[in-house]
Amino acid sequence: MFGDRVGLAERFVAILADTGVTHGLIGPREVPRLWERHVLNCAVIEDAFPHGAMIVDVGSGAGLPGVALAIARPDLEVHLVEPMLRRTTWLGTVVDVLGLSGVTVHRGRAEELAGTLEAPWVTARAVARLDKLARWCVPLLSAGGSLVAMKGRSAAKELDEDRRSLDRLGLASATVREHGGDLLEEPVLTVDLTFVERGSRAGADGRRRGGARARARGARGDGLAGT
Asked: Would you state the pLDDT for residue 216?
């Protein structure tokens, strides 16, 4: 999975087991299964993204899946979005320690960054139900972009239940995909949602800059951190 970057993955696991626990980002009971349940579990969704993709990880928390993806795929440009200061500070330190030059940390809620941060791909793990998650994430998507939402066994059921709300946001296609079946005891499921171009979206509120791809860069002096 990690190839010659497995050492970085090991360092990330060590950090999660140490300050990740003391900062309340990882529960102590999760330490014995950090590899399979968290880091590898997140890294396997790398096959959802094309080479060189720009990805926004909403509600990044402990850097899952964003940091795991950046380690597995150094070609990716990853933006970690997290509203809590102590978490963004921790994430910034992790990015620096691991030397992840393609990762930027943003402090703020997804809805606050609409019009400032935009990407063709947005992902999230265990943040909210699909309908609520899509309302937060669609404003961060470039025209025709996709949300890759990590979900559990009930992924298909949740998609079916929330389909009407997603349609109102301009859903163009939806697919439940399996990842890592050859590496994990149980494959990881994602719901991949692609939305129609901005001008056709129901409920578009005009907050987005027409056609512009503005990349917000971290600035340590104003609460943002990154490289």
From this structure: 44
